């Protein structure tokens, strides 16, 4: 399989770097999918009542359910440094672990920088590890909206785990990034059918399934927002397999091909394994692309999925990208997607929201991909919008989800057309 590279991709395009007011969720949001993925983990957010309300509202937790996350609420006296927050935290953790003996991994998640909450969670994690090991492993990371954006919570979580992974000399393939179980199963089935193995996954479902890492480990990312995890694995001696991300038929094929080449999979075996799902993906995308072809799209920075998704929409759905904004541009991760994205759109990193709003109004795109805070105001101005957050919560990776991915973008255009028709009548 050879990729149809554009004569001039976007890797060399000058990047518009903006630093101003941002409109993004904080990194605490990652807990919403991570607590479902890691079956014996618990996420204890050390923060305010506001953080507790955010998680309860965003996760839609029923009052009689007992999820695998909670909030250790800091009162005014804690924030002022008048109370011994460390002793209080130790007591709360002790009560939690006594009540929930199924917990094997405990994540202390800071909702604010340590200077604000007057509590060094890194030291607290070390202390609690000494108290509760080996039954429970305690980690810490920041989900602060001051320090992280929406998807960086997962990156910070996985990066915190990497230094504790056991060493190995084995040649393993490590798949890095949280996916819904059904999508992960599809990914592993395709790779196993090619004879690739052993395959490990981070995050693992349980502490006993955590991967080992060493100089013979090679890893492939399924999420483009894992820059810190990527760096942590490199420090452990592992080697990254660069590839376009597995969104759409082309991205999935290129991602699988990069791994197959690394493990010497014969070309005919590779083609036979992917033939049927690839054909289904092409057919499903074509059904949705009819409404996308020839339309323009503008990406506000939100999830760090923007560059691979722009590549998918332009090359597989026939759209024109006007601007592709991303919170952070990590060329080592999204470079292969930039190579495939034809030159033309503005590539921007960071955000100055007022300036970007001026640009989207001037461009008047057919579809605007943005965060929840911007979607309703833009809809009121007559723009068709797609919530960026939905692209993280919905299964969108690999062949069987390719049509659904295209449908996430075609539906807003369909809805706008219906509303226009009804208004005319």
Automatic annotation (TrEMBL):
InterPro entries: LIPOR_BchN/ChlN, Nase/OxRdtase_comp1, Protochl_reductN. It catalyses: chlorophyllide a + oxidized 2[4Fe-4S]-[ferredoxin] + 2 ADP + 2 phosphate = protochlorophyllide a + reduced 2[4Fe-4S]-[ferredoxin] + 2 ATP + 2 H2O. Binds 1 [4Fe-4S] cluster per heterodimer. The cluster is bound at the heterodimer interface by residues from both subunits. [4Fe-4S] cluster binds at residues 26, 51, 112. Pathway: Porphyrin-containing compound metabolism; bacteriochlorophyll biosynthesis (light-independent). The keyword Repeat does not apply. Residues 26-404 form the Nitrogenase/oxidoreductase component domain. PANTHER family: LIGHT-INDEPENDENT PROTOCHLOROPHYLLIDE REDUCTASE SUBUNIT N. The keyword Nucleotide-binding applies. Its EC number is 1.3.7.7. One of its GO terms (biological process) is light-independent bacteriochlorophyll biosynthetic process. One of its GO terms (molecular function) is oxidoreductase activity, acting on iron-sulfur proteins as donors. Belongs to the BchN/ChlN family. The lineage of its organism: Bacteria, Pseudomonadati, Pseudomonadota, Alphaproteobacteria, Rhodobacterales. Protochlorophyllide reductase is composed of three subunits; BchL, BchN and BchB. Forms a heterotetramer of two BchB and two BchN subunits. It comes from Paragemmobacter kunshanensis. This is Light-independent protochlorophyllide reductase subunit N. Signal peptide: none annotated. Keywords: 4Fe-4S, ATP-binding, Bacteriochlorophyll biosynthesis, Chlorophyll biosynthesis, Iron, Iron-sulfur, Metal-binding, Nucleotide-binding, Oxidoreductase, Photosynthesis. Component of the dark-operative protochlorophyllide reductase (DPOR) that uses Mg-ATP and reduced ferredoxin to reduce ring D of protochlorophyllide (Pchlide) to form chlorophyllide a (Chlide). This reaction is light-independent. The NB-protein (BchN-BchB) is the catalytic component of the complex. Its cofactor is [4Fe-4S] cluster.
């Amino acid at each position: 399989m050879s990729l149809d590279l554009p004569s001039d991709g976007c890797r060399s395009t000058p990047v518009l770097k903006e630093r101003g007011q941002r409109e993004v969720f904080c990194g605490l949001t990652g807990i919403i999918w991570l607590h479902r993925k890691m079956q014996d983990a618990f996420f204890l957010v050390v923060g305010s009542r506001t953080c507790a309300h955010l998680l309860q509202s965003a996760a839609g937790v029923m009052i009689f359910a007992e999820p695998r996350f909670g909030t250790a609420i800091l009162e005014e006296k804690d924030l002022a440094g008048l109370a011994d927050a460390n002793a209080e935290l130790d007591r709360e953790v002790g009560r939690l672990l006594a009540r929930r003996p199924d917990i094997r991994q405990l994540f202390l998640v800071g909702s604010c920088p340590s200077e604000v909450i007057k509590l060094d969670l890194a030291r607290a994690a070390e202390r609690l590890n000494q108290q509760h090991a080996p039954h429970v492993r305690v980690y810490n990371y920041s989900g602060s909206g001051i320090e992280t954006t929406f998807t960086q919570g997962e990156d910070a979580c996985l990066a915190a785990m990497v230094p504790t992974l056991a060493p190995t000399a084995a040649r393993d393939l490590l798949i890095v990034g949280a996916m819904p179980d059904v999508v992960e199963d599809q990914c592993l089935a395709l790779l196993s059918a090619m004879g690739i193995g052993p395959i490990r996954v981070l995050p693992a479902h349980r502490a006993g399934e955590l991967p080992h890492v060493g100089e013979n480990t090679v890893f492939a990312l399924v999420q483009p927002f894992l820059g810190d995890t990527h760096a942590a694995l490199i420090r452990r001696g592992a080697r990254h397999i660069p590839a376009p991300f597995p969104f759409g038929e082309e991205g999935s094929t290129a991602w699988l091909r990069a791994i197959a080449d690394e493990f010497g999979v014969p070309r005919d075996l590779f083609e036979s394994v992917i033939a049927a799902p690839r054909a289904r993906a092409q057919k499903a995308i074509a059904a949705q692309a009819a409404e996308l072809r020839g339309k323009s799209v503008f990406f506000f920075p939100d999830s760090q999925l923007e560059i691979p998704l722009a590549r998918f929409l332009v090359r597989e759905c026939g759209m024109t990208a006007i601007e592709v904004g991303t919170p952070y541009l990590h060329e080592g991760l999204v470079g292969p997607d930039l190579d495939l994205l034809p030159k033309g759109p503005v590539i921007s990193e960071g955000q100055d929201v007022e300036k970007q709003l001026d640009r989207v109004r001037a461009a008047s795109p057919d579809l605007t991909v943005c965060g929840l805070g911007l979607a309703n105001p833009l809809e009121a101005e007559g723009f068709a919008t797609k919530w960026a957050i939905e692209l993280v919560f919905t299964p969108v990776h690999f062949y069987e989800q390719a049509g659904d991915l295209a449908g996430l973008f075609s539906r807003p255009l369909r809805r706008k057309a219906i509303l226009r028709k009804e208004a005319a009548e």
